[in-house]
Amino acid sequence: MSAAVAGPHTNRAPSFWQSTNGKKAVMAVTGAILFLFIIGHLLGNLQIFESRERLNTYSHFLKSLGELLWIVRGVLILAVVLHIVATVQLALRNRKARPIAYAKKKSVNSSYADRTMYWSGPIILAFVIFHLLEFTAGTLHPGAAAFSEHDVYYNVVSGFSVWWVSAWYIFSMILLGFHLRHGIWSMFQSVGINHPRHTPLLKQAALWIAILITAGYISIPVSVLAGWVR
Amino acid sequence: MKLKLTIWRQKNPGTKGKFVTYPVNDVNPEMSMLECLDVLNESLIERGEEPVAFEHDCREGICGSCGFMISGVAHGPQPATTVCQLTMRHFKDGDELVLEPWRSASFPFVKDLVVDRRAFDRIIQSGGYVSVSTGNAPDGNDIPVGKEIADRAMDAAACIGCGACVAACPNGSAALFTGAKIAHLGILPQGKPEQDRRAVRMVAQMHTEGFGSCTNIGECTGVCPKEIPLEVIARMNRDYLFGAWTERSEVINTIAPATDWNFREK
How close, in Å, is residue B136 to chain A by CA atoms? Predict the structure, then answer.
């Protein structure tokens, strides 16, 4: 209760960012930005099933954006940083809010995905760092041969041919699905949208969107391992 | 029926607490949980031991005084039921129940199963006044209130402030309680003039009390004896977002939590 030491009767109120509600609103908005990226990225990636040329043309188009690409990257990095900073600060606060743990505690109403946000988040972050090093920077590319600047298709196929790269990818995408299953509906709650008729539908939609996105991403390493994409 | 009660015993905040197991052999299935503790306390007093302290008042589920964890669930396994209304027939003969007080930094420990929930009072207090004109009492039907609006306000107003939401929340958040208080006034036309300001001030007080943040998982509403819906938390978030933006005053004062009980050994 660090905020409660100012005077005998009065304290300055927390600012928007200091308040738990404000931080959750920031997490909702940044989460929404990252969710849009996840959809866009998936649609881009799925072009691998069309042809090698299609995927490579798409990647060259992205690279040709120049400054615009960096603006988008800047927004995404800012969103990731705010999302994580808010989470860490809230998590520390929440730990202080219950200094003595229960000897026995049961969950009665929350889903598995709800309760594992603190686990799925950091693992997804670790995955994103690995993923950027592997496919964007090319510094950590465990495939058979060297990383190619121009042939994204080749990078994907050679990368996912390594079984543990694919396994790590599939595992992370399942966790991403869990994260989205909670996040997609929770962001509406955090900015104040909840309705007894619509929110149950939203939760159902969140589940199916999460499953579709996970399945979409996983289809790529599975296809490479199965030899459908070579 | 026979039960084993493992109860948190702690004389005061200054001493160390521990679990003590008491066999209770003459439990009537028609008893409430509190009456079961009464029976146990009678035998403890006869043996010259200190009875188990627990908070209670109306014993009909509407005052919000009672409440503790029963085997990891706030107010026990029966939904929409306070411990005073929880009858022992819901347990099986030979069950072992673990009774533990609410655990929250914002609810300072008092004794055994009793905690200090005055943080809730200060949140209500910080909401401030509701605009009511002085003079003659207004005509009862002066302000039309739709049935659905009245129902929603009443659902939120059903909150008895027992603290189970905070106790059940893995983050120790008071979002459901504060949301209920913000919603039950904000929904009604009488509470509209101060709607956003009330939300900003109550949230400020909730923050000052040290409660955790809401992660929207719904454990609170699952144990709430009045089944307050998560919708009230969205209502709080919405009113707070608007209020935080439109608020013109730079300084919003909150009340410093008075949590010192100054227990002294006698």
Answer: 35
Residues A71-102 pLDDT 10s: 999 999 999 999 999 999 999 999 999 999 99
CA distance B42 to chain A (A): 26
pTM value?
A: 0.93
Number of CB atoms found within 10 A of residue B141's CB:
7
Residue A3 lies in a domain: no
pLDDT over 80 (residue A9):
no
Query: Which H or E element spans position B18?
Result: strand B18-24
Chain A residues closer than 8 Å to B233 by CB: 189, 194
Does residue A15 belong to any structural domain of this protein?
no
> How many Å lie between the alpha carbon of A15 and the closest alpha carbon of chain B?
8
The domain tally of chain A equals 1
Is residue B184 within 8 Å of residue B231, measured between CB atoms?
no
Weakest mean pLDDT among A143-157, B135-149, B246-260: B246-260
The separation between the first and the last C-alpha atoms of chain A, rounded to the nearest angstrom, is 58
CB neighbour list of residue B17: distance below 8 Å, 6 or more residues apart: B8, B9, B10
| Domain region containing A84 | 20-100+112-226
Contact residues on chain B for A27, CB-CB shorter than 8 A: none
**Which residue blocks in A65-197 are alpha helix, DSSP H?**
67-97, 112-115, 117-131, 152-160, 163-190
Task: Select the residue from B69, B213, B224, B260 to test the A interface by mutation, using most A Cβ atoms within 10 A.
Answer: B213
Please list every residue in chain A whose beta carbon sits closer than 8 Å to the beta carbon of residue B168: 108
CB contacts of A114 in chain B (<8 Å) are: 215-218
A131 contacts A217 by C-beta, under 8 angstroms: no
Residues 6+ apart with CB under 8 A from B242: B196, B199
The reply to whether A14 falls in a domain is no
Cα A78 from Cα A80, distance rounded (Å): 5
Q: Does the CB of B219 have a partner CB in chain A at under 8 Å? A: yes
What 3-state DSSP class applies to A157?
helix
Domains in chain B, please, with CATH?
3-110 (3.10.20.30), 118-131+139-246 (1.10.1060.10)
Q: What ipTM was predicted for this assembly?
A: 0.91
